[in-house]
Design goal:
The complex is a heterodimer. In chain A, 31% of the residues lie in helices and 25% in strands. Chain A is α/β, with parallel strands linked by helices. In chain A, strand 9 (226-231) and strand 10 (234-240) form a beta hairpin. Chain B contains eleven helices and twelve strands. Chain B has an eight-stranded mixed beta sheet, with helices on both faces. A four-stranded antiparallel beta sheet of chain B has the order 2-1-4-5, covered by helices on one side. In chain B, a hairpin with a 2-residue loop joins strand 4 (62-70) and strand 5 (73-74). Chain B is globular, with a radius of gyration of 21 Å. Classes of the chains: A alpha/beta, B alpha/beta. Bound molecules: adenosine-5'-triphosphate (ATP), iron/sulfur cluster and magnesium ion.
């Protein structure tokens, strides 16, 4: 296992709920409510969970796009919150993001050249226009696009090609970590395969680390080295991918895996184990956040919140003895 | 008995002086009580096939040729008011986004009551009683109270259950379900898949399931028709199409799925992208991306080649292989 590149600890990001003429704060959406995670250099950590569980907010907080209420984000051991703006700049370039919807995230009025060069300019990469053009061409080749694409506009490209442009833009400032927020979720399977292959190749070539945010468990199993499962603002289980899939311990992880449709015609296996809907993050349940839907709930669960029990490289937030097995 | 039989359906849109056939000779059938999955990537014509069956093709498009027989009656030659009676009574629909069919400002119970009374002469109390029964059947917790809810007060999963209750209220012969679980989280999807399985068993409704998700196909379908470029390219039992795919496109599609791949190994790709309808090739529509392309693929549309009991493939390469075999 390689060393930690990014470490998030005790992270809380809450959004105020405002009401009335004075817009006074009447409560908070606890989108992220005590998250710890580690992304290792050159490896992929998948952050999985259902919609609204806070995955995107974790990513946005790491990028500094949302203010953290509590907790720390460390890059190579440096606490980013403790840095002055000027000291922070070099770190900002190390972490870049690729979004789900390439069309919405690329400015339709800008040429590909400008889109890719934008970040380079703000981080002072490339001395002059000629040098920047050469770098843009290099990024486009890197994502297997023809450098001639430079002078065209986003709408002239297919969904998969636009996602390549989004990746080229992120890579242009030479980051070491890419946050991919549902980066392949909107793509058709055959195009998704092309982009997943590209991401693997880039990881190999550039030693990139990925924080791969997704709800698609078959993609997770295929590409992640480690997995963190999120539910209502918290990580409920984490560990090496194969172990999580072979031996899930948290009742939510188990339910999530059981619910995944099988693609094997010899068996049908999607089973609704976890019933009902996710409660609102504005008023999460007391005790274990999962206790209202947990098939194994017992009396202690509604009174007390379990901590993450860490054993070796695995962790599980549950009172069941299974959670702490070696 | 075949409840629904579509033959040689052609649906076109004007493009300059030409017409583009986005559905080009689609034939398929539904036996009573069975589920046929129509699968393919975006833009292949799945939803347009459904809209053509229902005679809801948006202008300026129109169905130009073919037959749609519902228990022997050709829907394409019905008078407009008769067709209106077929829709919602004999054929119902559920969509990916329940709000396309739910009225946001009316209570959901009332909407179902009205749907029943539109097609049947029953009083409000009887219709309400039936609605309550359907809500219970659709697994809506606290069904009686939910009758008075507005759509926005319900979660995505509950809205989809209301949609399903509404679709079944008139005891249709055919249910068209267009991406019914695509917008839902996997634990909610598993619950809806389970519900559809139960309804299929208990009501004997034939389902035309439209989806791009092979897992959902496998969990629900009896038979599968794969579409590419406005045509059906392969058709057969679920286990035939998913287990022994014969068309190069079906094979490529299944091979490119992370769910079939070994972790971290390169995914098989289908090269290129689906061309837009205006650029669809004259012969086989897959010939621009096919690895097994032959000379006459470019010019002639392939005819059906049987490769097993009820298993047909539209491919010149498959036809010539079988022709050469003794
Ligand atoms: N700017 C905001 N203001 C208020 N609430 C927000 C804001 N952004 C997100 N939220 C809420 O925070 C919670 C977590 O949202 P987030 O987008 O992080 O979830 P997610 O896991 O990324 O979901 P999805 O899978 O749907 O993308 C949700 O309840 C969401 O509605
Ligand atoms: S702590 Fe209790 S409610 Fe929470 S996951 Fe474990 S068993 Fe279920
Ligand atoms: Mg998100």
């Amino acid at each position: 296992m390689s060393e930690a590149l990014l470490e998030v600890s005790g992270l809380r990001t809450w959004f105020p709920i405002r009401k009335g003429v004075f817009r006074s704060v009447v409560g908070h959406v606890r989108a992220v409510d005590g998250v710890d995670l580690t992304v290792r250099a050159g490896e992929t950590l998948a952050l999985v969970g259902e919609s609204g569980c806070g995955k995107t907010t974790v990513g946005r907080t790491i990028l500094g796009l949302e203010p953290a209420r509590e907790g720390a984000v460390r890059f190579e051991g440096v606490d980013l919150a403790a840095l002055a703006p000027a000291e922070l700049r070099p770190y900002r370039k190390e972490v870049q993001i690729v979004f789900q919807d390439p069309m919405a995230s690329l400015d339709p009025r800008m040429r590909v050249r400008e889109i890719v060069a934008e970040g380079m300019r703000s981080f002072g990469l490339g001395k002059n226009e000629a040098e920047r053009t050469e770098r843009v061409a290099e990024q486009l080749r890197r994502v297997r696009l023809d450098p001639d694409a430079m002078d065209r506009y986003p709408h002239e490209f297919s969904g998969g090609q636009r996602q390549r442009i989004g990746i080229a833009r992120a890579l242009a400032v030479e980051p070491r970590l890419l946050i991919c927020d549902e980066a392949v979720s909107a793509l058709d399977v055959s195009i998704q395969a092309q982009i997943l292959n590209l991401l693997s190749e880039l990881q190999e070539e550039l030693g990139l680390a990925y924080l791969f945010i997704t709800h698609d468990l078959s993609v997770v199993r295929y590409l992640a080295h480690e997995v963190a499962v999120m539910y209502l603002g918290q990580i409920v289980e984490h560990g090496p991918t194969e172990q999580i899939f072979e031996d899930p311990r948290h009742p939510y992880t188990r339910g999530l895996l059981a619910a995944v449709p099988s693609v094997d015609p010899a068996r049908r296996s999607a089973e609704p184990v976890v019933l009902g809907d996710v409660p609102s993050p504005a008023s999460p349940p007391d005790g274990c956040r999962f206790h209202t839907r947990c098939p194994e709930v017992f009396d202690r669960c509604s009174r007390e919140m379990p901590e993450v029990a860490v054993r070796g490289d695995r962790g599980c937030r549950c009172f069941l003895p299974r959670a702490t097995e070696a | 008995m075949r409840v629904l039989e579509v033959s040689d359906l052609v649906t076109g849109f004007p493009a300059g002086r030409e017409r583009i056939h986005v559905i080009d000779g689609v034939s398929l059938y539904l036996e009573a009580g069975e589920t046929l999955a129509l699968v393919g990537e975006s833009g292949c014509g799945k939803s347009m096939t459904a809209l053509s069956i229902l005679r809801l093709v948006p202008r300026p498009g129109r169905v130009e040729a073919g037959k749609v027989l519902l228990e022997g009656r050709d829907l394409l030659s019905l008078a407009v008011p008769d067709m209106r009676n077929v829709r919602g009574a004999e054929i119902s629909m559920i969509f990916q986004e329940p709000m396309t069919s739910l009225n946001p400002v009316a209570r959901v119970g009332k909407q179902v009551v009205e749907a029943i009374r539109l097609h049947e002469k029953v009083g409000v109390p009887a219709a309400r009683e039936r609605t309550l029964e359907l809500f219970r059947r659709a697994g809506i917790p606290d069904a009686e109270a939910r009758l008075d809810a507005y759509p926005h007060q319900l979660s995505g999963g509950l809205k989809q259950r209301v949609m399903i209750a509404m679709a079944l209220a008139t005891r249709p012969k055919v249910l068209i379900a267009d991406e019914p679980t695509t917008a839902l989280d996997v634990t909610i999807q598993a619950q809806i898949l389970e519900l559809l399985r139960e309804l299929k068993r208990d009501f004997g409704t034939a389902i035309l399931l439209i989806t791009h998700d092979i897992g959902v196909v496998n969990e629900l379908a009896d038979r599968v028709a794969v579409m590419y470029g406005g045509r059906v390219v392969e058709e057969g039992d679920r286990s035939q199409v998913l287990g022994e795919p014969a068309h190069p496109y079906t094979q490529g599609l299944l091979r490119s799925m992370p769910g079939f791949a070994t972790a971290h190994e390169r995914l098989a790709e289908i090269p290129g992208v689906v061309p837009p309808p205006a650029e669809w090739p004259a012969g086989c529509r897959f010939d621009t991306r096919c690895e097994r392309v032959l000379g006459h693929c470019r010019s002639e549309a392939p005819a059906a080649t049987p490769v097993g009991e009820g298993h047909r493939v539209f491919c010149h390469a498959v036809a010539s292989e079988i022709g050469e075999a003794p």
